[in-house]
Amino acid sequence: MRVRVDGVTAQVADGASVLDAVRAAGGELPTLCNDDRLTPVGSCRTCLVRSGGKVVAACVTPAAEDAPIEVAADDLRALRREAVELIVSALPSYALDGGPGGGELARVCHSLGIAPQAAQGLGGRGRDDSHPYVHLDRDLCIACGRCVRMCAEVQGTFALTLVGRGADTVVAPGTGGLWADSDCVACGGCVDSCPTGALTEPGLPIVGRTPEPARTRTTCGYCGVGCSLDVLTRDGGVVAVLPDHDGPVNRGHACVKGRFAHGFLRSPERLTHPLLRRDGRLEPVSWREALEHVARGLRAAVAEGGPDAVAAISSARATNEENYLLQKFMRVVIGTNNVDNCSRLCHAPSAAGLTATFGLSGGTDCFDDVERADCLLLVGANPAEAHPVVGARLLQRVLRGARLVVADPRAVGLARYADVHLRPRPGTNVALFHGLAHVLLAEGLIDEEFLRRRATGLPELTTLLAGYSPDRTAAITGVPADDVVAAARLFGQAEKPAIIYGLGVTEHLHGTDGVRTLANLAILRGAVGTGRGFGVNPLRGQNNVQGASDMGALPDLLPGYGKVTDPAAQARAERVWGTPVPRRPGMRIPEMFAAARAGELRALWVIGEDVCATDPDSAHVAQALETCPLVVCNELFLSETARRADVVLPVASWLEKEGTFVNFDRRFQRVRAALDPPGAAITEFAIIHALAAVLDADLGCSTPAEALAECGRLAPAFAGLSHERLDREGAVAWPCPDPDRPGEASLYRERFATPDGLAQLSAAPYLPPGEQPDDRYPLVLVTGRRWAHYNSGGMTRRTDNLLLDSVDRLDIHPADAARYGLRDGDPVAVESRHGQARLIVRTSDAMAPGQVFCAFHFPASGVNTLTSDRADTVTSCPEYKVTAVHLKALNPSTSK
Ligand SMILES: Nc1nc2c(c(=O)[nH]1)N[C@H]1C(S)=C(S)[C@@H](COP(=O)(O)OP(=O)(O)OC[C@H]3O[C@@H](n4cnc5c(=O)[nH]c(N)nc54)[C@H](O)[C@@H]3O)O[C@H]1N2
Ligand SMILES: Nc1nc2c(c(=O)[nH]1)N[C@H]1C(S)=C(S)[C@@H](COP(=O)(O)OP(=O)(O)OC[C@H]3O[C@@H](n4cnc5c(=O)[nH]c(N)nc54)[C@H](O)[C@@H]3O)O[C@H]1N2
Ligand SMILES: [Mo]
Predict the structure, then answer these.
(1) Per the domain annotation, does 686 fall within a domain?
(2) CB-based contacts of 74: which residues, under 8 Å, 6+ apart?
(3) Residues 167 and 248 in one domain
(4) CB 3.0–4.6 Å: which of 109, 341, 398, 593 could bond 624 by disulfide?
C-alpha cells in the first residue's frame, strides 16, 4: 500500500499502522507506550499526528492510501509536547537526570524540547527492591503498561497489573504484596521495555552516564534455545545482559538464566590456577607443571594399557571448536575413540531414534515453523521452566488459537493451558504413543498418500497397533481411554500438527523406542518432510549438546556423523588429519566408569561435566574416579568431580571465549568473548593445544575459526559454514554444504535421508520400565528441572538465583504427604535401592498420587545417589525418570 507522510510517499504492508507509515517515510515521531514487540494501546498520546484530517495516535491507527498523514505541523508538535509535559510534570526531578542520552523518556523529552526541570512531581510512592533482579521505583512509573503487556504477550506469566486510579496508577505484582513473592519468573522483559527507569535491574546504571559500557553480541551458554544476547561490560565486569531484538529464536526475549545469572563470573570460588593433587591435597601449580603431570600420566596409561586405557568426556557447555579439537586430540594424538559427551545422559535416544527414522541426527524443522502450527503435542518436556523462551513462544501460539495436547505425568507449566492433558505413569510412553496411533488408524486420520509414497513399515505397525486399543492403553498407562481418543482426534484432525518433546521421552529404559514411536504419529499424519506440519523436534538441553555431537565428540561417530567403522568416513578424516583414525568404536560414558572400576581405564579427562553430581548412581561414579590412576578435570569451579580429580585445570566460561554453538533447531551461532578469563584460566581450546604440544603433537587449526573450517572439510554437512559467514548472517542451520546457499532449516522436503529415502515407522512393542515400585519402595520418583537453577547448579548457585530458589525440594501429592505425616518445609529422607537423599517437602497438586518429583541442582542433597544404573537399551541414556523410592520423615511435623 502507498502512503503519504508530509508529502513524502512510501510503501507499507497492508495492515500497517500510521506509525509504521511515518517510519517508512523516514519521519521522526516519538513514542512512549509503544514497543514493537507488543500490541499497541495508544494511551500516552506521544505519537499524535493528523491522518485524513483527524488527530489520532499513530501507533493504534491503521494507515490508509487515501488518508495523507501530517506529522511535522506546528500544532501537532505542540500537542505531542503537551501530552509528554503532562506525563513528566508528575515525575520526580531525578526522572530526567540521565540527560538526552539517557533512557527512552529522556530522549523523547529532548526531541520535544522539554527541559529536565519539567519534572516536578513530589514522589513519595516508594520503591520495591525485594526482588534480586527487578527493582521498582513507583515514582517513575507513567502507567504506560508496557511491562504489563510484556509479561502477558511475550512472557505469558501474567504476573503484573496496573493498580490505582488516574495519576496514581502504577504497576504492581498481580498477587499484591512484594515483587519477590509474586509469580515473576525474572525474564527481564518488563525491565527491557520500561521507558522511564521505573523498572531497573541492579547494577545497570541509568544509560547515558559515561563511560558507555562495551557491547558484545553472543549466544547464551545455558540451555539449548540459543538466545542471542548483548553483553554490556565495563571495567572487566558484566554490567548487564540484554536480549537481542533480532535474535532468531528469542526475538528480544530472554530468561532468568541468560539475562541475569552471570554473577558466577566474579565468584571468589572461580578457579584461577591449575591444581595438582599432592599428598591427597589439591595445590596450586603452574600450567607447565600441571600439563607435564598430565602428559606423564597419559603416556604411562598408554604404555600400560594401550590407547584405549585413556578416555575423555567432552563438554556440551564448550564450543564446537573445542569439542572438535578434543575429539581430534583423542583420535589423532592418543589414538582412541574413547570420547563421549553429555548427550549420552540426555538426548542420545533422540539422535539414535531420529537418525533411524528420518536419517539425520537432529530435529526435523525450524522452530519458526511452529508459528504456523495449529496443534501442539508437547511430550515429556517442561519448557516453561527448562526452555523458558521457547515455552513463552509456545504459550503465545496457544493463546492465539493453536490446540494443545500435553503428555506429562505432572501438571506443570503449559499443562494448565492444554485442551487435553495426558498423565501417563512414568515409563509408559511407548504404550501411550501406540494408543494414539491406534485411534489415528481406527478413525481414518492418516495420510494414506504420504504413507504410500514416503514411509515404510505400515503393515508391521498396523498389526502391532491392534493390541493398543484405548482401553488396553489406559490399563498400561493410567491415562483414561477417552483422553487417548480426544488427544488423537485433536492431533489427527489438525492441518499443521507439531511434536515437541523432551527428556520425559528419552531418559528411560526404552527411550529410543519412545522417540521412534512418537515419530510414528507425525509420519502417520504426513506431518513431517511436507512443510505441512512442524515435524518432530526435541528440545535439546545444553547450549551446545547438538554441536558437541555434530563435532564428533562421540565414541562411534566422527565429525558430521560418519561412522568410525565406515571406510569412506575413515578415509575422509584421514585425508584431512593426515594420520590413521582408530577403527574400533570407543566407550560410552557409563562404560568408561565401569572400565575404571575394573582397573582397565587408566586416565580419564573430564571436561565441563560434573559427573559425580549429575551422572546416575553417583556413588559408583565416585568409586570409578577413585580407582582411575589419573583423573583430569577442566572446570570453572571445584565441582564434585574436580574435588576428586588429580589435576584440575581452570577454564574460561562461555562469556570469555570465541567460537560457535549449535542450538536445538540446528542453528550455528557465534559465541564471542565479552571478558577476559580470571587469573590463569584459559580456554579449553588453548588447553588442548598446549597439552598436545607437551606430547610433541601439533593439532593444526590454531584458531577456532580454522577449527570450524577444518571440520567443514571433513564433514560435508558443515562445509558451507565459517565464522566469517556467521558474523555476517547471524545464524545458519545445518546441513549447510555450500557457502553460497542457505542452510536447510526444515528437512526432508524431497526425500528422507534414510538409506531407502523413506520415513521408517517403528513397530517396537511397549516394554515396562527398569525400576518398579514394590512394597518396600512404593513411590515413583521422577527427576527433572526447576526454572531458577541449571543442572549441577555449579553456576546458578553462585548467583542471586539462589535467592529465588535455595533448596532441592521434593514435590509430593497432598494425600501422600498426609500418609507419611509430612508437611510443607519438613526435611525428608528419600531412599531408593541405590542410595539416600535429603530434601525439603513441598506438597503440590501438580503431582499424581504415588509419584514424587525433585530436581538435582544442589549436589549436597544427593539426588543422583538415588538413580539407578539402568539405561536405554540402545544408547545407554540413564533411566533418570523412574526410580522406586520410599520416604522417611526426618523431623516429623508433630514434633515441631
Ligand atoms: N532451568 C533449567 N533449564 C534447563 C536445564 C536446567 O537444569 N534448568 N537443563 C537443560 C538440559 S541439559 C536439558 S536436557 C533440558 C531438559 O528439559 P526438559 O526435557 O523439559 O526437562 P525435565 O524437567 O528433565 O523433564 C521434562 C518432563 O518430563 C516429564 N516426564 C517424566 N517421565 C515421563 C514419562 O514417562 N512420560 C512423559 N510423557 N513425561 C515424563 C517430567 O514430569 C518433566 O516435566 O533443559 C535444559 N534447560
Ligand atoms: N537425576 C537427574 N540427573 C540428571 C538429569 C535428570 O534429568 N535427572 N539430566 C541429565 C542431563 S540431561 C544432563 S545434560 C546432565 C548435565 O550435567 P552436567 O553437564 O554435569 O551439568 P552442568 O551443571 O550443566 O555442567 C557441568 C559443569 O560444567 C562447568 N562448565 C560450564 N561451562 C564450562 C566450560 O565452558 N568448560 C568447562 N570445562 N566447564 C564448564 C560447570 O561449572 C559445571 O560444574 O545432567 C544429567 N543428570
Ligand atoms: Mo541435558
Answers:
(1) yes
(2) none
(3) yes
(4) 593
Q: What pLDDT is attached to residue 894?
A: 44
Distance between CA 433 and CA 451 in Å, rounded? 18
pLDDT score for 665:
95
Ligand 2 atom closest to residue 653's alpha carbon, by position in its atom list: 35
Q: Are residues 599 and 459 in the same domain?
A: no
Instruction: Yes or no: say if 700 and 709 are a contact pair by the CB < 8 Å rule.
Output: no
Q: For residues 798 and 806, is the Cβ–Cβ distance under 8 A?
A: no
> Of all atoms in ligand 2, which is nearest to the CA of residue 545?
14
Task: Find the angle CA(410)-CA(413)-CA(418) to the nearest 5 degrees.
Answer: 85
Among candidate residues 30, 65, 89, the one where a domain is terminated: 89
Distances from the Cα of 739 to the Cα of 369, 709, 747, 768, angstroms: 24, 11, 18, 47
Domain residues for 342? 275-346+544-727
Distance between first and last Cα of the chain: 73
pLDDT of residue 493: 97
pLDDT given at position 168: 86
Q: Which atom of ligand 2 is nearest to the CA of 264?
A: 42
Cell numbers at 212, concatenated: 558507555
- Tell me, yes or no, whether 556 and 657 share the same domain: yes
Output the pLDDT for position 259: 97
Report the distance separating Cα 586 and Cα 564, nearest Å: 9
Residue closest via CA to ligand 2's atom 7 equals: 784
Residue 895: per-residue pLDDT = 41
Q: Which ligand is nearest to the CA of 317?
A: 2
* Same-domain status, 858 and 799: yes
Cβ 340 vs Cβ 553: under 8 Å? yes
Number of domains observed in the structure of the chain: 5
CATH number at residue 843: 2.40.40.20
Tell me, yes or no, whether 552 and 493 share the same domain. no
Atom of ligand 1 nearest to the CA of 857: 7
For residues 818 and 29, what is the distance between their CA atoms, to the nearest angstrom? 62
Task: Determine, yes or no, domain membership for 555.
Answer: yes
Task: Check residue 533 and give its pLDDT.
Answer: 83
For residue 650, what are the β-bridge partners?
A: 635
Contact 301, 593 (CB under 8 A): no
Let me know: does 111 contact 88? Beta carbons within 8 Å: no
pLDDT on residue 208: 53
How many CB atoms lie under 10 A from the CB of residue 58?
Answer: 28
- Residue nearest to ligand 1 atom 47, measured at CA: 386
- Reported in sequence order, the residue ranges of 356-515 that DSSP labels E, i.e. its strands, are 375-379, 403-407, 420-422, 455-456, 497-501
Final residue in a domain of this structure, among 469, 504, 519: 519
**How is residue 494 written as a grid cell?**
489438525
pLDDT attached to residue 211: 72
- Identify the bridge partners of residue 313 per DSSP, sorted by sequence position: 340, 606
- All 3 cell numbers of residue 405? 495436547
Check which CATH number belongs to the domain holding 29 and give it: 3.10.20.740
Query: Hey, whose CA ends up nearest to atom 47 of ligand 2?
Result: 614
Ligand 1 centroid to 259 CA: how many Å?
21
Mutation to probe ligand 2, out of 610, 655, 684, 830 (largest number of atoms < 8 A from CB): 610
Beta-carbon contacts of 770 under 8 Å, excluding residues fewer than 6 positions away, are 509, 868, 870, 879, 882
Q: Which residue has the cell 588442548?
A: 688
Q: Is 655 in the pocket of ligand 1 (CB under 6 A)?
A: no
| Residues whose beta carbon lies within 6 Å of some atom of ligand 2 | 315, 317-318, 342, 345-346, 503, 507, 541-542, 607-610, 614, 634-637, 639, 651, 653-654, 684, 783-784, 790-792, 794-795, 856, 863-864, 867, 880
C-alpha to C-alpha distance for 167 and 178, rounded to whole angstroms: 22
Ligand 1 pocket test, pick from 223, 783, 809, 844 with the greatest ligand atom count within 8 Å of Cβ, gives 223
Residues of the chain with confidence (pLDDT) below 50: 206, 893-896
pTM: 0.96
Query: Which atom of ligand 2 approaches the CA of 342 most closely?
Result: 14
How high is the pLDDT of residue 710? Answer: 98
Residue-level pLDDT at 205: 55
